[in-house]
Amino acid sequence: MTEMLAISNPATGQLIQEMPIDDAAAVAAKVALARKAQSAWAAQPVENRMDCLRRFRDLLVERVDQLAATMTAETGKPITQARNEILATPARIDFFLDHGQSVLSDKQVFLEPGDSPETAQLKEVISQDPLGVIANISAWNYPYFVGSNVFVPALLTGNAVLYKPSEVAAMTGIAIATLLHEAGIPESVFIPIIGAGPTGAALLQEPLDGVFFTGSYGTGQKIAQAVAPQLIKVQLELGGKDPAYVCDDADVAAAAAGLADGAFYNNGQSCCGIERIYVHTAIYDAFLAAFLAQVKGFKLGDPTAEETYLGPLSRQAQLAVLAAQVADAVAQGATLRLGGQQVDRPGWYFAPTVLTEVTHDMAVMRAESFGPIIGIQRVADDDGAIALMNDTDYGLTAAVYSADRARAKTILGQVNSGTAYWNCCDRVSPRLPWSGRKHSGLGLTLSLAGIETFLQPRAWHWRRQF
Ligand code: NAD
Questions:
Q1: What is the second-level CATH architecture of the domain 242-429?
Q2: Residues 138-182 pLDDT 10s
Q3: 128 C-beta closer than 6 A to ligand 1
Q4: What is the reported pLDDT for 466?
Q5: Is residue 339 a contact partner of residue 300, using CB atoms and an 8 Å limit?
Q6: Pocket of ligand 1 contains residue 74 by CB under 6 Å
Q7: What is the pTM for the complete model shown?
Q8: Running DSSP on this structure, what letter comes out for residue 310?
Q9: Which atom of ligand 1 is nearest to the CA of 219?
């Protein structure tokens, strides 16, 4: 009998849909189908592939209400934030469409001095081939963003994609596949695979040409180990424990507003969400008061309501993780300023939580929380802040709030992270590489390098005569 994936609404805890899970045999058949189809897809003129992706972009905008409702139903993401994510995806797609052709084009890198390209005795050229058949194993927190960072440039450059959405966003995964197919991407070139960890693990047993993963450090390690014998490209976009430091010369009100949003947007379930805040002692009291006022102003409630800013957690199991972080912190001397427990209502709601007098002995300052909870720590000076920002296994992003750009640059230059923010946070640009250091990942998406990553270069040595 086919095993079914049960999908529940985090706002109510009620079952909303069941979907057949792909077992190992189904996964193998899908990989074989993609393998058969890939070379014809790569042989098409790039304009055809671009046309399909352009139509996909337009369909996202056209169907935004329906797509957002699906994402909200299965992940609990507030409806306004669901729409924001979908409507911000076309800008990323446009970046890939604008630059794909030039990345794919042949590059002449050497010509015998004095020769023309047509008559050269010796010419060196680089051309690009797609990797082939790739797996895209994805996360649920921003399914449109993290998915399209991978499958859009992968398809554009001629790869076939086995797309395994998270089991927490499987309905959205099917919606994305349906739209891509409607836009003209062949069903054998973009294939959704439904299931949880065991389905992902089965996919990695198949012959692939690359694996592009977004998810946690723990799963990333398993993925790297599982595909190591295949010696294929592995890219891992993993978690973070992203710090922010508020200097004594910062605009306190702006920093408090920006960091409260950075910590609590999408209920704190963002890879680059703010997870630790360090505040210069000179402005600590003013910052804390402004920050608490911001958080108290966030409206918690039904995620389908327009005014809701904080919905339920997407995963029930995370309620216990957050409660344990609060208990550990309080036991070790932290002060609970706000929240600290599950909200007394149906669904998987955790109250927005602010802890102060925290230290790096506490899990809340070391382990990824991935929820509406933040620790705020007082620091004496910039050196103290830098040492604490670097005291982590992760290295995704770091933010500094200061009136002085040079000071921020000096501080950020000493923090080991893939992204540096001055007076902003929790921000991603298609023009900039998105990469994590240490336990935050391997490889990158976005930017021109995020298109090249789906290609393998071929080095051409053209010699006219022996
Ligand atoms: P997760 O690691 O639990 O799951 C991610 C995906 O891996 C899911 O599709 C899951 O089904 C699959 N999976 C689980 N076990 C597997 C296995 N053994 N083999 C193959 N696949 C397997 O992560 P999640 O809860 O979906 O996402 C949250 C995590 O993702 C957080 O740590 C977050 O920081 C991180 N994240 C990182 C980025 C980034 O860009 N760096 C972006 C979004 C999320």
A1: 3-Layer(aba) Sandwich (3.40)
A2: 999 999 999 999 999 999 999 999 999 999 999 999 999 999 999
A3: no
A4: 62
A5: no
A6: no
A7: 0.97
A8: B
A9: 2
